[in-house]
Amino acid sequence: MFEKIFLAGYFDYKKFILDNSKVLGLTPNDALILIYLIDNYFKNIKIIDVDNLVNTLNLHKNEINNSLTNLLENSFYNVSLVSGTNGLEEQISFIPLLKKIEDFYKDEELDDTNKKIFTLIERKSKKILSASDYDNINNLIVLDKYDYNDFNETISYLEKAKLDVTVRNIIKYIEKKQVKEEETINPAIQELMAFFRKQNG
User: Which of 21, 53, 63, 131 could covalently link to 59 via disulfide, CB atoms 3.0 to 4.6 Å apart?
Assistant: First the structure.
């Protein structure tokens, strides 16, 4: 899907590269050359011409080669051998870059979700989370695939049950099945279950 958007010219790759060059690990030369290569790609020039890059961008040949190597090694493009007028030629492809862009936006969305979860927990617990708290919550998000709604429902359960909203209790009660089952149990049995949990650590 994203490849079609990119090839149709609807994605502003220049703005993306310039705005996120530091995050992507691109030097100014890397960013300049990458944009130039993509510009050429859309002009149906899919062969890397180092001499042309030197003349057009006014950079030393060594700088060009270093950046091309960096971009290739860090999966911003790849090359394949195709038959050309002068025999086999290296043709450029930006499939690795498209995968990188897709992953970038997925990570950004995930980061926003994580921030909402951390903010919710800090607000409800009235406590700034420690480094270990962040690690424990992040494990629930990444490894156990719990989302914002899971955390919100668990915190609501803790509040209704008059239990402290702590990271420890959130971890303990986050499983929806456990929360939903215990909502139907009368308070006396809940206290008994809580006692046995405490005994078992």
Answer: 63
Query: What is the reported pTM?
Result: 0.57
Q: What is the DSSP-derived secondary structure letter of residue 100?
A: H
Grouping H, G, I as helix, E, B as strand and the rest as coil, residue 60 is: coil
Of 89, 7, 94, 98, the residue nearest 48 (C-alpha): 89
Q: What is the DSSP letter of 147?
A: -
Q: What is the pLDDT of residues 59-75, one digit of tens each?
A: 999 999 999 999 999 99
Write the burial class of residue 172 (CB in 10 Å: 0-12 exposed, 13-18 middle, 19+ buried). middle
**Domains and their CATH numbers in the chain:** 2-93 (1.10.10.10), 103-199 (no CATH)
Write the DSSP symbol of residue 12.
-
Give the closest residue to 68 by CA, choosing from 41, 31, 22: 31
The answer to whether 57 touches 15, Cβ cutoff 8 Å, is no
Mind listing the pLDDT tens digit for each residue in 105-114?
776 666 777 8
